[in-house]
Every structure is written in structure tokens, then in C-alpha cells.
Specification:
- There is one protein chain.
- By secondary structure, the protein is of the alpha/beta class.
- Helix content is 45%, strand content 16%.
- The protein has 15 helices and 13 strands.
- The strands form three sheets. The protein has a seven-stranded mixed β-sheet, sandwiched between helices.
- The longest helix is centred in the C-terminal third of the chain and has 20 residues.
- The protein is globular and about 60 Å long.
- The chain binds pyridoxal-5'-phosphate.
């Protein structure tokens, strides 16, 4: 055991030398615009709880009621012990919200990507990914055994070159399926994928398109279902994915699509089959979260969120004049400099996490600012002042 720990300590030391060591921070408060971080009250610009629903009274009540009625745990996987009422309700609610025939819930977004991609493609197939997709998608693609091809971020020319290559591959094996996976709103860069163009090209080359709306669900489109709705491509996307732990305010992941797709995943997605069903409280909370998003209150919260990130964008021309989303990366470059800037802001009572490798590429470290409707205009002013007073920028 000593030799084992010594080996691991050496590896941790190597991370520390390159400014890549990570440590957990203690938070002694609920999520919100202000949190108690390592014992100190700070403004929080780190969360994906974009609409403040993680602590919303209706959502907490729904979780508490589900615990009273169905207990804390769900007992086993759903193929063994069945689907509880909160699971059934959530899937019906998601399908209705997304306008698809059916939906399937997983215990996390990570498990959703892993189970779905490995169920759909395997050896002999090809997965095409945008360079910046989330680690869960990269891991899933690798695990699937399919050939992996990566195109430069949002680069349609590079993307079509790969599709042309796929076409040649298909000449030798007509069975080859091609699965394209992108995020709609990129989690660390805050920009959009060109969904209509991706959809047109996937149709031209006979591929399937999977869109991860983890950060867009609840925030875009007239019905607030995501960017597939905003770009009017929902009907053309074979597999719509999302998470329940960001704007929706609970935890878990989902796939929305045809009844056939969902029936197939129930039979083939190993992270669904071999994993205990989500706790009833999480599913009930997610249903309540979607209900708030769909209500007039959801529209109101979204309006406030837009006002907050626009205010930041206007105050800082080094970023974007008009930020398209509540995720705003302040690019720094070196890992050490990003950490230093984050620490300086923290000393002023402002928490903006430094995002480093392996979450982003080496040398493209950044401060990732995320906004929530629970922030006030004064909170954003404090953030702007914090940035202005730091000598690095
Ligand atoms: C957060 C995230 C996931 C993983 O979801 P979890 O529910 O946190 O496991 C997957 N894809 C993207 C793009 C994400 O941002």
C-alpha cells in the first residue's frame, strides 16, 4: 500500500508542477448567486444552474413529495424492478416538451452519452465529432469501437472533407453507419454549432446526427426546448440529448427521439440496463423544473438571465460585444495565469473557476464565467469591477 501511494503521490506532484492539480472546494450553502465557499461568502459565477431552479421552492417540494411517496432509492435498474411513477411522468413530460414521440432518462448526462453512442455504433462504423465536444461523448465514441474522426471546431469545410472520406470507406463496406455528434451550445466556449448546415450535410451524405443540448435546454427557442428548436432542425435530428442537472435544476440525462429509438436504447444502452434507476426525487424534481421552464415564470427568468450576460458583454469588449449565451469564457492561455486571475478575483469575493486541461486544450486555459437569473445587476457590476481591477487584463 505504501509503494502504491508513493507512486500516486509522484503522479499528483507532476500535475502540481504543471499547474494542473485540482482540489475539491467545500461549499456550505445551497447553489445560488452567492455561496459559502471554503468558509467565505462569495459571488458565484461558476454554476450551470442558469435559471436558479436547483433551489426553487416548487422543485424542492416536488422532490420532497416524491421521497415521501416513493422513498429515497429506486431499488434496482428499471428492467429489473420497473419504472416508478416519477420516471414515467418525467419521460412523458420530456417527450411532450421536446415534441418527440418518446424520451428515456438516464442517471447522468455522462451515462446518457456513454450508453447511447455505444448502442448505436460499433466496429465497422464511423463516429464524427466536433473537436470541442464534451468528454462524455469522446469517451463514448472511443468505447464504441467505431472509427473516430474529429473536425476542427464548427469548421464545415473540414467536416465535409471527413464526410467525403466516409463515402469512400462505405464503398468497401456498405454496412458502415456514420454518426455525427455535436453539442448545440458548447460548454466551455459558449458558442453555437451551425445546426442547419450540419443537418444539411448529414442528409447529403446519409449520416445520423446526435445533438447534445446539455447547456441549451431551457434557454433557447420560443418554447425554450433548446437550439434545435431555435434553428428549426428538431425534426431532422435523429438523436436529441440533454441533461437534467443544468437549467432544469435536478440531476440526470435524457434522450428524446422516435419511439423506435427509445425501445432500441432500452434493449441496448448498457449504462441504462446495468444501472440503478434514478432516485424518484430526482425525476420528480426534473419534471417540476421543466414545468417551471414552460411557464410564464420560465420566460421571465430567461429574460433576466439575458439581461445579466448582455450587461457583462457590454462592459467588457475584450470578450464579445453581444455574448450569445450565459457561458462567457475569458481567455487567458497559460494554466498558471488563469489560476492566478481566479485567485485574485476570489480574494475580492468573486468566484470564477479557472478551466484548464484536460477540460480544455493545454495552453487555452480560461476563466469560464456563467450567469444565472438569480444574479442581480449589482452582482454583474461587482464582477466587472473585479475584472477591471485585476492587472492581468
Ligand atoms: C454536463 C455535460 C454532460 C454530462 O452531464 P452530467 O449530467 O453532468 O453527467 C454531457 N454533455 C455536456 C455537453 C455537458 O455539458
Amino acid at each position: 500500500v505504501r509503494a502504491f501511494d508513493a507512486e500516486l503521490s509522484g503522479r499528483l506532484e507532476a500535475l502540481s508542477q504543471t499547474q494542473l492539480l485540482r482540489r475539491l472546494r467545500a461549499v456550505d450553502s445551497p447553489q445560488g448567486g452567492k455561496i459559502i465557499l471554503n468558509g467565505k461568502r462569495v459571488l458565484n459565477f461558476s454554476s450551470n444552474d442558469y435559471l436558479g431552479l436547483a433551489t426553487h421552492a416548487k422543485i424542492k417540494d416536488a422532490a420532497a413529495r416524491a421521497i415521501q411517496k416513493f422513498g429515497a432509492g429506486s431499488g434496482a435498474s428499471r428492467l429489473i424492478s420497473g419504472s416508478l411513477e416519477p420516471h414515467q411522468e418525467l419521460e412523458a413530460c420530456l417527450a411532450d416538451f421536446k415534441g418527440t414521440e418518446a424520451a428515456l432518462v438516464f442517471s447522468s448526462g455522462y451515462a446518457t452519452a456513454l450508453g447511447t453512442i455505444t448502442a448505436l455504433v460499433g466496429r465497422g462504423d464511423i463516429v464524427i465529432l466536433d473537436k470541442l465536444v464534451h468528454a462524455s461523448i469522446v469517451d463514448a465514441a472511443r468505447l464504441s469501437g467505431a472509427k473516430l474522426r474529429v473536425f476542427a471546431h464548427n469548421d464545415l469545410k473540414d467536416f465535409e472533407e471527413i464526410l467525403k472520406w466516409c463515402q469512400r470507406e462505405r464503398k468497401t463496406n456498405a454496412q458502415t453507419q456514420i454518426l455525427i455528434v455535436t453539442e448545440s451550445l458548447f460548454s466551455m466556449d459558449g458558442d453555437f454549432a451551425p445546426l442547419p448546415e450540419l443537418a444539411a450535410l448529414k442528409e447529403k451524405y446519409g449520416a445520423w446526427l446526435m445533438v447534445d443540448e446539455a447547456h441549451a435546454t431551457g434557454l433557447f427557442g420560443e418554447r425554450r426546448t433548446g437550439l434545435c428548436e431555435q434553428f428549426q432542425v428538431s425534426e431532422r435530428v435523429e438523436i436529441q440529448m440533454g441533461t437534467l442537472g443544468k437549467a432544469i435544476g435536478s440531476a440526470g440525462g435524457y434522450i428524446a427521439g422516435s419511439r423506435t429509438l427509445i425501445d432500441y436504447l432500452v434493449n441496448k444502452a448498457r449504462s441504462f440496463i446495468f444501472s440503478t434507476a434514478p432516485p424518484p426525487s430526482a425525476s420528480a424534481a426534473a419534471t417540476a423544473g421543466i414545468e417551471v421552464i414552460r411557464s410564464a415564470e420560465g420566460a421571465e427568468r430567461l429574460k433576466t438571465l439575458h439581461a445579466r450576460f448582455r450587461q457583462f458583454g457590454e462592459g467588457k469588449d475584450i470578450i464579445y460585444r453581444e455574448p450569445p449565451s450565459p457561458i462567457i469564457p475569458v481567455m487567458v492561455g497559460s494554466e498558471g495565469a488563469a489560476l492566478e486571475l481566479s485567485n485574485r478575483l476570489a480574494a475580492r469575493g468573486i468566484f470564477v473557476p479557472a478551466i484548464r486541461y484536460p477540460t480544455v486544450a493545454k495552453g487555452s486555459a480560461r476563466l469560464r464565467v456563467t450567469f444565472s437569473s438569480v444574479h442581480s445587476a449589482e452582482d454583474v457590476n461587482a464582477l466587472l469591477n473585479g475584472f477591471q481591477n485585476s492587472t492581468l487584463l
